[in-house]
Amino acid sequence: MKKVVLELKEGDFIVHATHGVGKIQGIDRKKLAGEKHVFYVVKTEKLTYWLPMIDSKSKRIRSVSAPATFAKALSVIRRKPVLLSNNFRTRIKYIKDEMAKCSVLANARLIRDMHARNAEKNLHVNEHRTLEKLKTQFINEWGIASGNDGKTAIANLEKALSISISKMIAEE
Length: 172
Prior knowledge:
- By secondary structure, this protein is of the alpha+beta class.
- The protein folds into 2 domains: 13-63, Thrombin, subunit H, CATH 2.40.10; 67-170, CarD-like, C-terminal domain (Methane Monooxygenase Hydroxylase, Chain G, domain 1, Up-down Bundle), CATH 1.20.58.
- The chain is 50% helix and 20% strand.
- It has helices at 67-78, 88-100, 104-121, 125-146, 150-170, and strands spanning 13-16, 20-32, 35-44, 48-52, 61-63.
- Strands 4-3-2-1-5 form a 5-stranded antiparallel β-sheet.
- A hairpin with a 3-residue loop joins strand 1 and strand 2.
- The longest helix is centred in the C-terminal third of the chain and has 22 residues, at 125-146.
- The radius of gyration is 18 Å and the shape is globular.
- The chain starts with 12 loop residues before the first strand and ends with a helix.
């Protein structure tokens, strides 16, 4: 899959695989290790970071998804969850690999499957933080993409997750 180069400017929203949705506040020039670099200054809900312009070609950065993508994501979340590995290290590697895809649909699968694991066996504290972070990023991006309010998005996400859990319970 060829990565699309983003043409970014001040005021654009982007999604970073780790930091979530952010808005480009401007451009900054810095000298690091004797070399001049140009950065986008990106502000998220919780932090401001400097994204090297060269990294705008990274697979870890993308534009905000279209509203229709969130309808597909909710459909994914409503499906029966896939059981995550009982091996902690295997599970963490899988979660990190999926998050690195920087995809709404990959994150939707993670939200569904991690939520189901938490319902059955309780997630490790760090996994629980990751799940909450994924949910927040999902809600924030959906709000920007569709202009809906957070309360509606949260209610729709929670309903989809409860449908998924009911499918898991029905097959036990």
